[in-house]
Amino acid sequence: MALLLPALGWAQYSISGTITDRSSRQPLSGASILSGNTLIKSNSNGDYKISRLKAGTYTLTFRFIGFSEISTTISLTNDRIFNAAMAPTNIITDEVIVKATRATANTATTYKNLDKQELEKYNHGQDLPFLLNQTPSVVVSSDAGTGIGYTGIRIRGSDATRVNVTLNGIPLNDAESQGSFFVNIPDFASSVDNIQIQRGVGTSTNGAGAFGGSLNIQTTTRRDSAYAEVNNTFGSFNTWKNTVNIGTGLINGKFTFDGRLSRIKSDGYIDRGASNLKSYFLSGAYYGKKDLLRANIFSGDEKTYQAWNGIPEEKLKGTPAELGAYYQNNKGQSFFTPADSSNLFHSDKRKYNSFLYKNQTDNYTQNHYQAFYTHTFNDQLSLNTALHYTHGSGYYEEYKNEQDLKDYGLANVILGSDTVKSTDLVRRRWLDNDFYGITYSLTYKPTTRFNFTLGGAYNEYDGDHFGEVTWATFNSNGQPGDRYYNGNGFKTDFNIYGKATYELGSLILYGDLQYRKIGYDITGTDKSRIELNIHDKLNFFNPKAGITYLLNNESNVYASIAVANKEPNRDDYVNIAAGLSPVSENMKDLEAGYRFTGNSIKAGLNGYWMIYKDQLVLTGQLNTEGEALRQNVADSYRLGAEADVQIALLPNLSWGVTANLSRNKIKDFTEYVYNYDTKINDSFNHTHTNIAFSPSFVGSSELSFRPFKKAEIGLLSKYVSKQYLDNTSNNTRKLDAFFVNDLRLGYNTSLGKVKNIGITLLANNIFSELYESNGYTYSFTYYGVQTTSNNYFPQATRNFMLSLSLKF
């Protein structure tokens, strides 16, 4: 810290002023002012102030939706005032595409915005969830341990199936599983302009219900100048990322074209946890005085070696005797071959992967097509519409030992006097689906005090699920191309919402009403070859209301109440225990908070109470495929407080910190344990237990120091308290707390025609914390003894990524 002491003696100055509409001379509230890496917003009076600046030259850029950008260079030797009078633009900006589903500075919703510059600091090849790791209440995990390949995200303890994700307002969540699989669109962050993360129910949006939060993602927007960018990363575990971005800039004041091509490869931290990912993104737009037309085409292709079994606790943490007992207890069920046995006993305990078959891979290609049209009728009324189509197709391949022929529709094989009833085989399980629909929003703003949006969507999903045996020791009567199961899921999703804000002096009222109608049909056979004939229709009404009070130009307080409803997913319908049927989940979300934006500090403090009715939770039951089953529980809740603070400690030293302290409980829960002796489930009642994967504390810290203008040193820290693997609050079934630190070194300069040369060294987990961020558990009773099997997903120890980016 001694090196920082001279900074205290530097003279410090400020730049301040007012931002107005040049035509009406009205102040522009919420305008963006960018100076280097500092981004602030104007207050409700259009005022802004950047303080604690050293003497020198600064470039300020002023931006506001619907207005032409202003840039100015100021030589600072004393306090300066610069008033920006912005001219309404004669062409529409891209922000209108996502505006209907976004919260603003005065909306009674808890949210965080990330712009392109912030995302670029973290984007070195890892999946999008890992780029959000420093945001409030987020916990991320990775099957392969590196953040590449299959990754997961939880917000406030809610997994990806409860986090609504939209790309330019179009749903990304799979209609049946309701999860978002970013592995299917690798390096998508390189085509993202900004993200808004709403925690809790948030505002009305399209697609799956937001029970934990929502990610509202906007892709590439207009760039007026032609550009080319090359980004390359090399890192531990033979990780490579290569990305090329190009764009024409604005042609004839009306047209732009942008493109990206990416490749990511990694061997993974876990044995054979390799990923081979490819993607592209193409976009073209027409900008008129009253019309905007944009088309996006993007695709992802992934091949990942399966690492989704995790590592048994006996292998990861047990003694040799405990590992031996695990082997003896499981070899009869898992049919360990000699190679499997050697792998279990002799592989690295933190990198063990039970799969040895060379093509034990997941393979999937997803193609997206989006078309947007926006028309501005006048200063008060505008319409935004979008058409979309997504096609996904792929399979996972796996080798299986000693499978019963009848389970695959195959006849027994007669060899002389012997009857062969089982075989080793290789199978592929396919998913081939189409998702298409329309979204729209109509915005009416007759006065500066009143704003109304009418929006909604209609989407259809048509997905085929089928399986094939591609090789078998005894293929019996099977023929190439035969499907041993063949099912279909067809889903319709209609929603319409109206939302309005009205200003009464310092008081801002917010209302939001949504109606959603779902139809879901599941037919054919499932992977257990059981006939399916499931039909359900659901109607949801999701009201929301909030109030914001402006304390002064720098701060406000808000409170809101929102209702959300969510349908069961495909597995809930298909795998539900005999005699039961899943019902939809309901949540009431109460939020209250305080926001402050000052010269050297920006803070958001909020509390929440999420009250669930009929939440679907894991019960301990497994189906014949070993998949965990969920069941409705009557009452559960999440009660918590969050903080998100950024402080400028010195002109060249800043600190960002987030924290979440919560209590997450199920009031009454029944655990089921399968009893091999009686062939039925034993039940155990629990009260006031913790909801699985819901840590009571999640915190992050990012300390950023700029020793000189072009360099930055960042220390990123993350703490997550213990989490339970199931809903019993049993301390023998948990993930231990972990504290992980990453170090980021960055340097940016220019040379000749190269506008920016960026070099970044990212050292992840610099203290080699041994931790697991995800896992699962199941229990069973055999010969009167109850046994619990815990399995974990270890994350990589110390590893490095070195990136070089060139911008032209």
Automatic annotation (TrEMBL):
The lineage of its organism: Bacteria, Pseudomonadati, Bacteroidota, Sphingobacteriia, Sphingobacteriales. SUPFAM superfamilies: Carboxypeptidase regulatory domain-like (SSF49464), Porins (SSF56935). Residues 327-766 form the TonB-dependent receptor-like beta-barrel domain. Belongs to the TonB-dependent receptor family. This is Thiamin-regulated outer membrane receptor Omr1. Residues 106-213 form the TonB-dependent receptor plug domain. It is a multi-pass membrane protein. GO terms for molecular function: siderophore uptake transmembrane transporter activity.
